[in-house]
User: Fold these one by one.
Assistant:
Number 1:
Amino acid sequence: MPSLSALRAFDATVRHLNFVRAAEELSVTPSAVKQLVRKLEDSLGQPLVERDVRGLRLTAAGEAGARRISEAYRIQVYRGELCEDCIDLS
């Protein structure tokens, strides 16, 4: 089962498509974000993010995962488990 830290790192990476900006948001190093995303990919057995000279882009699995995480956050906000202002739901 993926760690919550890995899911948060992936979520921030999805929104920024940049490990440095994701790291800034999470107050960790870019290396930590990369490592957490890689651990998530390893636990799922498939790549979620493709890295190239232009930056990052999501694979089909990454896009599907991003939608599921966003949906889970919306459910938690609806239930009152998360503060709507605490996360970016865009």
Number 2:
Amino acid sequence: MQQTPAPGESSRIGASDAADSAAALAVIVQTTVGSETEASELAGRALEARLAACAQVSQIRSLYRWAGELQDEAEQLVSFKTTRDAAVELCSLLEREHSYEEPEVVVLPIIDGSDGYLRWLEESTRPGTA
């Protein structure tokens, strides 16, 4: 059994059963897009609809095979921190609004995290909260 930190101690990752439970519900949804403008637009739509608590945009270089040809492209990686429940609708939004013919939309589990962060993530994706 894991112990909860004593008052005044910092919360450790995996320090409580509540963190384990919240982490099981937390996911990262990732997609790549061709421009910073599209990344910002998709992130804004997701945040406005409370489908994600946070979106991070990073410039990356992608090497891949498409239509039988090797590609080497600059792209933007957008990582959305969200919950499993919100991820379903978020993935639908990304697939519907994405400019690519076959967009990357993947969901990755968050297996652990700080109690406060996971609580914030869940609260930020709950409709009707501030």
